[in-house]
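HUMAN: Mind making up another protein with tokenized structure?

ASSISTANT:
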Amino acid sequence: MAKISTQTLNGKAFEYALLNEFFEKLKTSTEVSIVKNETFATALKCFESFNEEEKSAYRLNASFAINFLLDIEPRLSNQLNDDDILELEIVSDKQGQRGDVRDVLAIRSSQNWEIGVSAKNNHRAVKHSRLSNDIDFGEKWLNIPCSEKYFHAIKPIFDKLNELRKASNKTKKWESLGDYHTSIYVPIIDAFKDELLSLDKQNPQIVASSLVQYLIGNRDFYKVIKGKNKVEIQAYNLNGTLNLPFSNIKPKAKVPKLKLPTRLIEVVYQENSKTTLLVTLNEGWQISFRIHNASSRIEPSLKFDINLVSSPHTLFVNQLFLG
């Protein structure tokens, strides 16, 4: 298996554990099959790379989560007939680039129904997005191109970083720049902030909702977060496709529909920070953007760690403690 990061290894292992628990818990009550594609094989290898104790921990977290999902998604365990097969699939990471953040799918083609799970292992970052001379975040995130003014502001900074990288044969490190938070991060963040506000002013209502949809995806899903001695389930039910009944069998808990924001209220620096912006929107959404360098060596790009600081009070959240 090619070398992959610890975070990816953990994430893929958890994806496999969730899919496998779906299969094990459903195989005696309904027709179920696993799509054994390349992503499944990768996830299985990641899972198998752990020792038995670690694998048991993944299984336990997944088991608690799947038991709960079975209670609130009756279509998982109920079929129309013998031809109504539940297909389980681990999807390619490329789907996330297309606005679908789901990792594991459970699909019933006969019912024209599916649900998806986003698997998170001990981290809550919604997205990791880059900024550079070549990346139009407006186009990529919001389907609204950034202005020339934005690129004019960031170009000299990223060009300088590129020159430093080339001159040092890719060896020069960020720490050699001194206070690069002030000299590099702040002007980039300021340009990003100004452009986001400008795009919102020119496209009222559109930017706020598009920003949240870019971050959490355009398909409804459950986020399952594996923590220490607990697993958390969040339901992002923007389109109302989660928590549906099967015939007269109703879910055992109600998952409310979420409202997208329509207004960007403010964009400010987090208190005492030169690296993090807080974007506040209506309907209870707040998002943090923390800029950082992805490598110790200088690169002509920077990365955002993007997190949901707060979400609407209607976001369904359930924490299951493992005892």
Remarks:
- Residues 120 and 225 are 5 Å apart (CA to CA).
